[in-house]
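Teaching note: in complex prediction, the entire set of molecules is handled at once rather than each chain in isolation. The prompt given to students was simply: 'Predict the structure of this complex.' The entities are:
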Amino acid sequence: MKALILTELFVLRRRAVGKAMLWVCTSLPVVAAVLYGQLSTSEMSFNEQPVSELLAFSGPDATQVALRVLHTLAPLFILALAGQSWAGERSSHVLREQWVRPVSRAAALWAKILSLWVMGLLSLVGATALSLMITTPWLGSSGPWADLMISITMSMPSLLALTLLASCVAQFGRSTASVIVGGVLFLGLDVGLGLGLSGLAFLGVEWAGPLKGLLFGTAVSLWSTAADGLSIEAIAALIGWLATLTLLTWRRVDRMEVP
Amino acid sequence: MASEALVTKGLSRQFGQRWALADLSLKVEPGEVFGFLGPNGAGKTTAIRCILGLIAPTSGTVEILGESDRTRRLRGVGSMVETPAFHLFLSARENLRVSAAYGGLDHTGIGAVLDAVGLADRADERVSGFSLGMRQRLGLARAMLGGPRVMILDEPTNGMDPRGINEVRTLIQDLKSRGVAVLMSSHLLAEVSQVCDTVGILSEGRLVHMGPVTPDLESIYLSVTRGGVH
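The expected output is the structure of the full assembly:
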């Protein structure tokens, strides 16, 4: 299994999208953290108050900004890579060549999922480490370290859930492009539902709040909300999504007929 | 331990209302080269896909080296289905490393199989620059990884030049002499008659003739199939 994961990781890192993911998801969050740090010396004001006094500036604060950018960029790259790993390999018959080897489909499925997750984790480690290395000496180290550590820790299951979603969507798509479109549509619909339910909750509809807690977007946002307190419902929603996506993906893979 | 290398019993596959393969029963012994012959669309590739577990049969069973489980029966099997596919952004050697990992094999035999198909000097070039014939050779190298005891080849000489075709014939004879059971499909009468011991002729999904290769293969083929000579 370890050899399979390393092999799949090797293939992902050699793909143009894989290389782009590692570069973009590491560098752009760092750029965002540096730009955020620039605000500490800015003369910009908001409601007649200087922005440098409105916001907190430290290495951990700037790295939280980097994490936010990473979590915005990563889903697109994960969808693209999952699309290439499943839909792309199926249409180019590479998947057929793998499945005529004596490897169980479960092992092949987990090798692809875990290697994709590792790509997300490499981006996470790269972006946070670089951001901290640059912004902490510059902006200072006294900041919300505990919150940052919770965000980094909860980013791991969030990235796994995104990887499983992308892998699941990839079982239904016929090309990389269709996987990206399908994944973005799902995420967009999820955001739309979240906004709608927030509105209903604001108007006093009792069931809207709990229902919003079950949405995929709420579950994968745990990395940003966990610092305010981890709720059992949110963790249950995340575990529920992980289990559902795993089962759906496995069902498709087990029954898949390869051309 | 089973004496037959490959056994299928009543193997059938239906696509919609059409039976692409109906009641295929055959046995291939170790050291035997069995040729599937038939016009395009006769069911040769469907049979090979069912045997390799790429598609599920509607009914019937497949046993390779005594194993019927989809994963376990592929141990000791080398295969090449139609035009072999590769990661085009990887080199020939890297592609074989990926296949070796999926086969649970180490990398030690890669150099030898690349040498056997005449690609040793192109091993570190990207497959995207390979011709169809070179990809076919690389597909054969991949099929030979790990020293299989059963080789399943679907149109192995497709796209090859005469020299390559001759090398494949030599390779199959070499496999036979080492006791490897070979199941190959072709729509070329000459190819099957030159390398195979036994021939099975498929027509419209049914095995309409099975027996040793004889000089009158062409007339048998014409009498049992409705298509022309290919």
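Point out the following to students. The interface with chain B takes residues 3-4, 6-7, 10-11, 14-16, 92-94, 96-105, 108, 255, 257-258 of chain A (CB under 8 Å). The two ends of chain A are 25 Å apart (CA to CA).
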